[in-house]
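Handoff note, outgoing to incoming analyst
You'll be picking up this chain. Sequence as last confirmed:
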Amino acid sequence: MGRVHLFEFHELEWFPATLRDLLTDFLSFYAGAFKPYVPVAPLLADALESTGTQRIVDLCSGAGRPVLSLRPALERRGLSDLEVILTDKFPNLESWRVAAEENLDAVKFVRMPVDAADVPGHLKGFRTLFTSFHHFCPDEAREILADAVTKNEGIGVFEYTERNWLVWTLPTLLIPLVVWLCTPFIRPFRWDRLVWTYLVPVVPLVALWDGFVSNLRTYSVAELWRLLDRLEGSCYTWRVGTVRSLGLSRITYVVGVPRS
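Most recent structure output, in case you need it:
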């Protein structure tokens, strides 16, 4: 089926910040616990080596765990001095502080909102987007890629959602159950997390809707190539494809690095 750009609650300006943070905390816990993105570590390591940097500027970080779940695999590939900078339009500062404390000097974060389509010039490093590129309509997605090209920075986009209902129907329906089971183990501990998960189950229901819509909005490989059409004149090398992740699921990716 074609891509359908419905809304997700946690990207809406009026959606309460508390609930947004609780949702992104769950998504990050899932990424940290099950590590669906580990299969892209070789791709990311090659891109970092090609650009000659060991700094990742993670855009649309949420609570930050997707990119941090790759640090051990990247370090095993020789990137021992890797530095990660977390950014988002809606910064989840409490979770980022915990991540920075756990990783000492290897993780930093930007307190102010950062627009993925207009990243401040002083934020130098290889840009990544994990489970977030589908939030943007084609024109916005193209602007994100173009901004990296304009500022001569490498960029990697990785999505484990997919418009494949043979694979994703059952996992999507089970999202509320997974939220209920995982919530006691999510850190930092918050009493309101228990309230909005068990007493008033807003987080499980929003996670169900947003998970369903995320699959509908995820770009296919062919659609990602079309986003790059207007950038082909740039001095960049692009790789677009899929790699196998958990079970039957696949990660769709775009990786671009300056040829020079």
